[in-house]
Design a protein that fits this description.
The complex is a heterodimer of chains A (389) and B (257).
Chain A: E1 6-11, E2 18-23, E3 28-33, E4 35-36, E5 39-40, H1 44-51, H2 53-56, H3 60-84, H4 90-93, E6 94-101, H5 106-119, E7 126-130, H6 131-140, E8 150-157, E9 160-169, E10 175-186, H7 194-206, E11 211-217, H8 227-233, E12 239-243, H9 246-260, E13 267-269, E14 277-285, E15 288-295, E16 305-313, E17 318-325, E18 331-337, E19 350-359, E20 362-371, E21 382-388
Parallel strand pairs in A: 1-6, 6-7, 8-11, 10-13, 11-12
Antiparallel strand pairs in A: 1-2, 2-3, 4-5, 8-9, 9-10, 14-15, 14-17, 16-19, 17-18, 19-20, 20-21
Helix pairs in contact in A: 3-5, 6-9, 7-8
Chain B: E1 3-6, E2 16-18, E3 23-25, H1 28-37, H2 49-57, H3 62-74, H4 78-89, H5 98-110, H6 113-126, H7 130-141, H8 150-167, H9 171-185, H10 188-202, H11 204-213, H12 218-229, H13 240-255
Helix pairs in contact in B: 1-4, 2-3, 3-4, 6-7, 6-8, 7-8, 8-9, 9-10, 10-11
Classes of the chains: A alpha+beta (389), B mainly alpha (257).
């Protein structure tokens, strides 16, 4: 395998992690369960561990130690799984990689970022997304006629069936796509009732909306019991596919789209993880009052991270943040007070401002007093504020 | 309403040391603040190779370095133009009235040498750098162009030098300087400093004798005596080592050359 030729997508889940890779030279896509040697790779303990850290380890030092252990273990498992596939040097062999997870939480984001760091995979070629975004990328890499209207996904997980609708707004440029969660049902014990249950669910989910294509995923689905339902799904020329490994494939397509070739520059996915607000400040820059963007709408919340330093001018111990929706011109002001900041001569307080996000709707601002060199030493005081949509 | 000024130049990992006042500088803003508030300490050679090198290496502000080097090469009023460039680099945050600042720079440039040196020495006193200040006052006294500045100027130099000696507890030198200041200026303040030094060095009888000689009025004499007597004697801290350590550090700071 030649250097940096491999495009990878990984479905990182508790039950059966999957890997999908694509070799540019051979144009060959392979999807397989992740294995370490002959055994299935398992991330269950690691994922459970990071998500329960705060609960299991109230002491911060212990928690950090445990987090570090779990991160090392995750990177090691990933390294071994890649090695099993013949990837002994991911840093030089992988051109692009995307890990997809069911839901993006701060602990999972930290874990994946740590795996990338430890494997030497830089941010420009290592990505992270949730299952919904995988569905989007998987879909747009199918034939265009399959997604020229809405696309539906029925997801079978044991006895639970849920519906996801990929809705397109062709009126905008670029064309925007959203994922809407629909109803969820529980299949009854008696399998003979499943077809009727599912038939009703299809009716309730699709209603009068136009769907060009439906994907069915999950082990519980079987054509044998779903005759009436399949007939309903196929009505009006809708294409219906039963697919495996969709999330890993979707992740692989994401890597391809972001690293190899931007095939769909006119399509924009507006996922739940995308920040819809611009956050900035009015600052003096080169002596002029200027709007200084801190977080730009349109990026994933876990990628939004900004650090800057400023000198505070004026008597009020406060910082003023300007917030605007990506689709509106109006701005609102959020004032962050800095109580107990030392009184110093004007212009001798240097502050570090750090913005990061805990979700698409929740931004954390941390401000630290850096003082002013030896003249007014830093107090190390830190103020924290949450901006919520 | 407060405003924030974006810091576009990174802070230094290793500070620039301003020897005159024993101060470490870590950022372009600190450098600008120091220069604007201590114009008397900023001499023609302030932006020397060491400072310009530090700005390039530590602050990585290469554009500013190029500006400074260009001004230095052109050689026309370099200090004023460099200070102007420094303020422009930080967006003029420390200068309220740019015109007044320019005028101050210009009038400083035109000051006679002894007056410029006196202001520098006074600034050093303000920072507690008494030994250095005394050296500067001595340099003034041997300058050739003192005549046009008058007795008042000389008196002020002796007075400030005397106060610096007193701060170092070199009381004989302090008394001698303050006597000369008193002779030159003849003001109540000068006499007050002189009397105070004599009291502290030689006791109340010497104080009374000098007050009689100098015909100090009774009311002022009483007020000064009561002020001296009410001065607090510092109580030693329980931890003698800490106290001594503090004194040693203070001594080195005040006498550093």
């Amino acid at each position: 395998m030649s250097a940096r030729e491999l495009i990878v997508g990984i479905d990182l889940n508790r039950n059966q992690p999957q890997i999908c890779y694509y070799e540019r030279e051979k144009e060959n896509t392979v999807t397989a369960p992740m294995k370490v040697g002959n055994d299935m790779a398992s991330f269950r303990e690691i994922l459970d561990g990071v998500e329960n850290l705060v609960h299991d380890f109230p002491d911060e030092t212990e928690r950090d130690r445990r987090r570090s252990e779990l991160e090392q273990k995750a990177a090691e498992t990933m390294r071994k799984a890649l090695y099993t596939l013949g990837l002994n040097d991911p840093e030089s062999q992988i051109a692009g990689i995307t890990i997809t997870v069911p839901h993006l939480t701060r602990p999972v984001v930290h874990l994946v970022q740590s795996i990338y760091r430890q494997l030497g995979l830089a941010k420009v070629r290592a990505f992270l997304q949730d299952y919904k975004e995988s569905c989007f990328y998987h879909t747009i890499y199918q034939k265009r006629e399959l997604w020229n209207r809405n696309v539906g996904f029925f997801i079978f997980e044991g006895e639970k069936v849920s519906f996801l609708s990929m809705n397109m707004n062709p009126q905008t440029r670029p064309v925007t796509f959203t994922m809407e969660e629909g109803i969820t049902i529980s299949l009854k014990q008696d399998r003979s009732l499943w077809d009727e249950q599912f038939y009703n669910m299809i009716n309730a989910s699709l209603r009068q909306n136009m769907y060009s294509c439906i994907f069915l995923m999950g082990d519980t689905f079987d054509r044998a019991w779903a005759g009436r339902s399949i007939a309903l799904l196929c009505r009006a020329g809708r294409k219906v596919f039963v697919v495996d490994n969709l999330y890993a494939r979707g992740a692989c397509y994401t890597s391809r789209e972001k690293v190899v070739q931007r095939k769909f520059p006119d399509c924009l996915y507006l996922g739940d993880e995308i920040i819809r607000n611009n956050i900035g400040m009015k600052m003096y820059i080169q002596g002029r009052e200027t709007y200084y963007p801190l977080i730009a709408a349109g990026v994933n919340w876990y990628e939004a991270d900004k650090v800057c330093e400023c000198i505070l001018i004026g008597k009020e111990h406060e910082l003023r943040f300007l917030i605007s929706r990506m689709d509106e011109n109006d701005r609102r002001v959020s004032v962050m007070q800095l109580p107990e900041l030392d009184d110093r001569p004007d212009g001798t307080t240097r502050l570090q401002i750090h913005l990061s996000c805990e979700s698409a709707k929740r931004c954390v601002i941390e401000v630290e007093d850096l003082g002013f060199g030896d003249m007014y030493p830093a107090t190390g005081k830190v103020w924290r504020e949450i901006l919520e949509e | 309403m407060s405003m924030a000024v974006l810091c576009q130049v990174k802070r230094a990992e290793h500070p620039f040391y301003i020897r005159d006042i024993d101060l470490n500088i870590y950022s372009i803003e600190e450098l600008c603040y120091f220069a604007d508030h201590n114009l008397a300490l900023v001499e023609e050679d302030f932006f020397d190779d060491a400072l310009i090198g530090w700005i390039g290496e530590e602050l990585q502000d290469h554009n500013f370095v190029r500006t400074l080097e260009r001004i230095r090469k052109e050689g026309v009023q370099p200090l004023g133009r460099m200070l102007h460039a420094l303020n422009a680099e930080t967006g003029w945050i420390y200068v309220q009235d740019r015109e007044a600042f320019e005028k101050t720079l210009d009038s400083n440039r035109r000051l006679p040498g002894p007056e410029r040196l006196r202001r520098r020495a006074d600034s050093l006193v303000g920072y507690g750098k008494y030994t250095k200040a005394i050296e500067e006052y001595k340099r003034i006294l041997v300058m050739e162009d003192l005549e046009g500045l008058g007795e008042q100027f000389l008196g002020t130099v002796y007075n400030n030098m005397g106060v610096s000696y007193a701060r170092l507890f070199e009381m004989d030198e302090a008394i001698e300087c303050l006597r000369k200041a008193c002779d030159s200026i003849g003001s109540r303040d000068a006499l007050r400093n002189y009397l105070c030094a004599v009291y502290l060095a030689r006791g109340e009888d010497a104080f009374e004798k000098l007050a009689d000689e100098r015909k100090a009025d009774a009311e002022a004499r009483e007020a000064l005596l009561s002020e001296i007597k009410s001065m607090k004697v510092p109580e030693p801290e329980e931890d003698v080592n800490t106290l001594l350590g503090g004194w040693v550090r203070e001594y080195h700071r005040e006498t550093a050359r």
